[in-house]
C-alpha cells in the first residue's frame, strides 16, 4: 500500500512540476536560440537578455488604412533595430490586415524602454494612437 501511495505522490509531483514549468515558460517571453518573442499580450513586459540575443515582436496592423507601427523610443546602444520590419498580409483580399514583425538585436549592456506607436506618418501621434511598450535589460 505504501508503494502505491509513493507512486501517486511521485506522479502528482511530476505533474505539478510540469504545470509550473509551463506557466513559467508562458510568462517568460523567451524562445529558442536566444530569441525572445513578444506579441500584443506582452505589452509592458520587461525582458532580461544577453548581448547577442534578439527580440522578435509581432503586432497586427493594416497599412492600407495609412496606419503603421513606428518605433518612437529606443536606446540603439543597448537594443538596435535589425533592419526594417516585415509585413505579411492575412489574405490576398483588398484592404486585408496582417502582421508586422519587428526584430531588435541586443548590442550592449544597459536598459532601454522601447515604444512603438500605431499612427499615420503624416499626422502627429495622439492619445488615441495604438501603442506597445517593453523594456529590455541587457547584461
Report on this structure.
- This protein is α+β, with helices and mostly antiparallel strands and 139 residues long.
- The protein folds into two domains: 1-30; 34-138, Sandwich (Immunoglobulin-like), CATH 2.60.40.
- The protein is 19% helix and 42% strand.
- It is built from one helix and nine strands.
- It has one helix at 2-27; strands spanning 35-38, 46-49, 54-61, 67-73, 79-81, 86-89, 98-106, 110-120, 130-138.
- Strands 1, 3, 5, 6 and 7 form a five-stranded mixed beta sheet that branches. Strands 2-9-8-4 form a four-stranded mixed beta sheet, with no helix packed on it.
- A hairpin with an 8-residue loop joins strand 6 (86-89) and strand 7 (98-106).
- The longest helix has 26 residues, at 2-27.
- 16% of the residues are buried.
- The model is unreliable at 15-30 (pLDDT under 50).
Amino acid at each position: 500500500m505504501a508503494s502505491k501511495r509513493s507512486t501517486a505522490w511521485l506522479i502528482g509531483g511530476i505533474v505539478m512540476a510540469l504545470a509550473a514549468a509551463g506557466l513559467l515558460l508562458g510568462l517568460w517571453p523567451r524562445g529558442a536560440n536566444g530569441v525572445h518573442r513578444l506579441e500584443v499580450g506582452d505589452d509592458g513586459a520587461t525582458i532580461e537578455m544577453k548581448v547577442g540575443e534578439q527580440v522578435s515582436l509581432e503586432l497586427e496592423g493594416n497599412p492600407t488604412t495609412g496606419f503603421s507601427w513606428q518605433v518612437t523610443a529606443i536606446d540603439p546602444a543597448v537594443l538596435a533595430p535589425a533592419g526594417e520590419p516585415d509585413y505579411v498580409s492575412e489574405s490576398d483580399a483588398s484592404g486585408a490586415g496582417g502582421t508586422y514583425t519587428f526584430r531588435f538585436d541586443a548590442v550592449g549592456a544597459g536598459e532601454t524602454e522601447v515604444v512603438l506607436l500605431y499612427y499615420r506618418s503624416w499626422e502627429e501621434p495622439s492619445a488615441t494612437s495604438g501603442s506597445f511598450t517593453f523594456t529590455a535589460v541587457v547584461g
